[in-house]
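Pilot study result, target chain (399 residues):
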Amino acid sequence: MTAVDAMGYTTPTPIQADAIPVVLEGHDVVGCAQTGTGKTAAFVLPTLQRIQHGHGTRALVVTPTRELCLQIEEVARTVAHHTHHSVVAVYGGVGYEPQAKRVRRGADMIVATPGRLLDMMNRRDVDLRNVEVLILDEADRMLDMGFWPDVKRILRAIPEQRQNLLFSATMSPEVLRVVGDTLHEPVRVEVAKAGTTVDAIDQSVYPVNSMQKTDLLADLLAQSGWDKVLVFTRTKHRADRLAKQLGHHGIQAAPIHGDRSQGQRQQALAAFKKGTVPVLVATDIVARGIDVDEISHVINYDLPNNPEDYVHRIGRTARAGHDGSAVTLMAPEEETQLRDLERLIGLTLPVRDLEGFDYGDRIVPTEDRNNRKGRSLAYGGAVLGRRRSAPSARRRSRR
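Predicted structure:
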């Protein structure tokens, strides 16, 4: 309870209220909740409450990305400071030996990415024979990223008699089929329907042709004065290029993706947290590891191919009771992705324009696009700088 107070909680979040008692009772748990709702504390608190300290590694957390690994470690260390447990993060992209030394000295809880943990297992630097609690965080992402063969090797190295906890913002049927044989009468804790988005997020779509996305984004950032803006691109190359292009517009931005070194990624994230760099340009691979307070806007520069990634992306804002906004820049070729994600979240997102922006040819979705097989309206030329709802703009666009 001292640790809970140190973390700033006065009342539990819904996922914490539902999951913590079940975890404390020793049940296997499948936990599903929106991002930013306290899932990490929901499994760290009861796990460290249950396991002894100083008797070898009793809890193992496996997670897909380095950033998420560091985030979980930070929460666990805050708790462990008061419970006297030792916590070690194990992840790639940095030197092996310093992590191995900490593990060899003894760790009550290990938080790991699959690749680096397998390295330590192969070199016999880690002893997992006494693991009592296994936590798979963002299991669906690990399946998407091709980590599941590695995870299965890890599962074979730990005792079969253990408590299993699966936590994520989404839990696909594919994941449950894959991990089903490792679970023992799991209790499902779902405080929000899979695919739902945080109510406090103002979501909108800005139709634009692909060649004008950067200019529109730069104008949005310049005119609005937004700070702590997280921008998502589809590829690493686009993240690098967009960060440079925003710099040419006088907007400080830093890229973060899988090809950046761990030092570069941590440096970019630290500058973003401090506010010295107001815009962070990221790929989906690091989306779930970015836990920054008071991100004002999430911008989808590219729509994700997987609609569930949209839920994870926009969950970076409106965290811990704050409001936030999610803006999606939609090119004509991305209309199918827009419909897919709207079906997932059960909403038709409002379409907006930036006043005064000189749009070129583009596609503007109709408001009833998800209620019938209707076509979107094609808009072109300078009239697109007008508000979409203006009758005169509608008449001109159909000529």
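One observation from the pilot: The two ends are 68 Å apart (CA to CA). A full batch analysis is planned for the follow-on phase.
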